[in-house]
Amino acid sequence: MESRKAFLSSHLAKAKLESKTLSKRSRALSWFRLSLIIALLLISYWAFQEAGADEWLWAWLPGIILFLALVQWHLKVRASLDYQKALASICEEDLAALEGRISRAAFAYRAPAAHPYARELDLFGAGSLHHHMDRSFTLEGAQALAADLMDPPYADWKERQDYFSELEANPDWTLDYRAQGNLIEEKPKVKERLGLWAEESFTAFPKWYWLPMVAGIAAVWYYLFGLVMEPSPASFQSFLIALTFNLAILGSRSKVLRKQHHRVGQVSDLMSSFTLLIHKLEARGFKTKYAQGFLAKFELKPGTSAKLKELSGLLSSLDQSANAVALVVLNGLFHYHLFRLRRLEIWHRNNAKHLSTWLSGLHRFESDLSIVNYQANHPDFNYPQFTATPHLEAQALGHPLINPAHRVSNPLQYQGAKYIILTGSNMSGKSTFLRSIGINLVLAQLGTKVCAEEFKTYPFQLLSSMNPQDDLRAETSYFQAEILRLRSLLDRISEQRFSFFLLDEILRGTNSDDKQEGTRGFLKQIEGLSAWGIIATHDVDIAHLADQNPNFWAAYFESQVIGEELNFDYKLRKGICKTPNASLLMKRYGLIPEGKS
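User: That's the sequence. What structure does it adopt?
Assistant: Structure tokens below.
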């Protein structure tokens, strides 16, 4: 942890120092440009006032060249400044995360109620696993991480572990990539717009347009040369006619130009940012099998960044069509936008079909970087191992979202029995323990590290019922919601892949006798299925199933009363809890009078 803090603190200090230097340089360049323009204006004023000084007007030629060079220099300085600020922001966010603080807003997403575990494990929302992990810089990146959490790619667990290790081993590169990504000015539904554009076809202009276009360019430059050599109203009139002819040709294709600008205009900067990110991936030189397969799957091969760079330039040309002066001058003299439109047509025909794949790859990589960053911020976590047959064993298993200073870890090992019946007093840690198991199973199947010293597991299908909700609009009672939830989980069980149940106080929506009988019946129902699990309950009679049935064993958490205080050690013990504390808690909060129970 200290090594990670030192790394981030060092980069934060460097980024802040560089930002100050670049800010000063940016202000100096702004003043220099202003001073240059004022100097040129003063020279012009003096040249017009002083006889024989008109030659000084030639100072505008080197002056404008110098001014344009200063503009480009200033743009580069501003880009570097923005990068350093993004880098500093990333370091500050991760340093806060190391202290248990989350600075960014939670991803606005609610998992489907039918999902087998997402809501029960609190994968989304403030303080959730997604909230802790997410370092994406686009909405699609956050969505890709959400998709991974809800359907982890467990089949590639070993290759993904190697891949994440490769990325984690070069923190400078990942930090640089994320800083560059954070400069993206996200625009709504860009991927959808580009997808629709890719499905359409268009023609810049018919082939026979080449003849009048070439003739128009030749004419306008012929008459412009004549106007310069021998200025006269006739030569000027001829030049205007040629210029108007060229603009008329452009006007005949203005509908196509406007349509393309409407489809994909104003995203040239975004394409430029994506170009830089793909170029970094091309130059990274990945060694692991998974990384190479990832790049191949999303067609992120050498040369892709050059294609996107060309598209960015073409889209920037479309944006320039909104400038009236540029439109008249560039098209009257060169047919600039028609030629650029033609290049866009060729690019569209050859590459547009790949756009969605390229962008999907970038967004998936965002998800992977979030995962890598999460494991880098938790150096006490370890990679799990997977088994081909059902197995679950852990040493020092803890809840990954609990601050290490307050986290209590426990061993866990299934020996013979398929189900643990977990009892315990209120607030003793049963639900947290279930979530610890569930979230670590999700992390393991993601291919990342888990909150345990050792963790060996089969890639179970995770099934959970911990907090079913009633639905007044659907006229669904709490008890009916529980029944429907359990039925949906049973329907997911398959012999092809063992399942793992996480059940917390099922059938709580009915009376005690019904609850006990129904719970026993449900446990007998799942006992013979291709599933393991853990069932938390307050009903100690249910736990006595372990006395008679080798498929079940009992474990518990307990509380202790020391003086007038109720204490919890959150340690898992073998056996059945015998220390209920509901009345003690109610007395503590003044819900029942002292001496009553």
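The chain has 21 helices and twelve strands.
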